[in-house]
C-alpha cells in the first residue's frame, strides 16, 4: 500500500486543473476500443509521430538533485526518466525524497544551504511562495521554447508568476472521474449517470442490490476537497469558482451553501458510505480504491470518486481496467459536467546549465513518453503520442485532457495558501472532514471555512 505522503502526492499530481468540455470527456470515456481516429490541424500528428524534439548539452561531471514527495512506483518510474537524461547528457542525477508539505521541506534544505537543483511542486500556490521567497529561478530560453511548442497557454500560465515562466508541468491529473465495479453495476441493473440526479438514482440501485454505493477516502482530506470542487465548479460555474479560489468571495457565500447542501445528499446517507462516516474518515485513499475492486461482486462499495491515478491502486487488485473496473465522468450538477485537474511542476532552485537542461528535458515529449508507457501517469504535454499510454482507458483520458485546451480550472485547494488548502489536519481538509462527520451543519462548516481561509489569505478577499 502507499504511504500517507504518496497518497498526498497523488492529489496534487494530481489535483486538478483541466475542465474538459463535458461532451468531449463523455465521448472520450464512452468506449474503450482503440485510441480513436486522428485529427488534423490540432497537433495530433505530432502526438502520434513522436520523434526527437529536444537538444541537450553534454554535462559530464555535473551532479544534480531533484526533490519530490513521490514514493513507490511513481518514484521508480520517474527515476527511469532521470536515467534517460543521464544517458543523454552524462550528468548524474540523484532523487531526493521530500516530506509533505514540500515547501516546508525545501525551506529547511535552503536554510541549511543545501537546496536541491530542481523541485517538483504540486500547487500553483507553492510556486508563488517559492518565487516570493526568491527560491525559484526563471526558466531559460530552451525550456521556454519547449513550453511554447508542447503546452497550451493555460498550462504555461499556471506555471508562471507575474508573466515569467517558472514551472514546467510535467505531470497532470484528471480528477473528475468515478470508478466503479462493473459486476456490481450489472447485478444492480445500474447505468452510468450523466447528472447528479442520475448519480443518486444509481447509488440507490446499487444499495438496493445489497452493496454499499460509495467508498470515500476521508482520512485524506484532499479527496473531500476534490468532491467539493467538482460539485462547486459544475453548480456555481467557472466565474464563481475563480472568485472562491482567490478568496474574492467568502466561503459564507450562498453558492458554497448550495454546494455543501448538494454534497450532503450523499454524505448524510450513512448507509451510502462504506463504513459510514466514521469508517470513511479512517480510510486512506489507496484503500478507498482497492476495497471497491476486491471481494468479487460483493465488495465493500460499488463506486469510488477520484482521478485517473486511481488506476495505480486498481492495479494492486486483480481487477482489469476497462473490464472489471470501469469509469464515467463526474456527473453534471449544473448545466455542464466538471473536470478538475491538477499537476506537479518542475521548478529550478539552483540556476545552472544542468538544472536548466533538466527542466528543458522534462518539458519535452520524450521525457513524458517514457513515464506514460509505464502507466499511472498523465501528461499535459500535447505532443506525447496517444499510443504511449498503456491501455485504451488511459489513452482516452489523456486525449480528453489535451482536448480541453485552455478551458480548464486548476484544483481550487491547490491554488490556496498551503495552510488552508494543503495541510493535513488543518484548514479546508479538516473542515470538510468535520462536515463529512456532521453534514447537517452547513452554516457552521461555512463559518469555519471562511475563518480558516481569511487567516491563510491574510484576511484578503
UniProtKB/TrEMBL annotation:
<feature type="region of interest" description="Disordered">
    <location>
        <begin position="34"/>
        <end position="57"/>
    </location>
</feature>
<keyword id="KW-0813">Transport</keyword>
<dbReference type="Pfam" id="PF13416">
    <property type="entry name" value="SBP_bac_8"/>
</dbReference>
<dbReference type="InterPro" id="IPR050490">
    <property type="entry name" value="Bact_solute-bd_prot1"/>
</dbReference>
<comment type="similarity">
    <text>Belongs to the bacterial solute-binding protein 1 family.</text>
</comment>
<protein>
    <submittedName>
        <fullName>ABC transporter substrate-binding protein</fullName>
    </submittedName>
</protein>
<dbReference type="InterPro" id="IPR006059">
    <property type="entry name" value="SBP"/>
</dbReference>
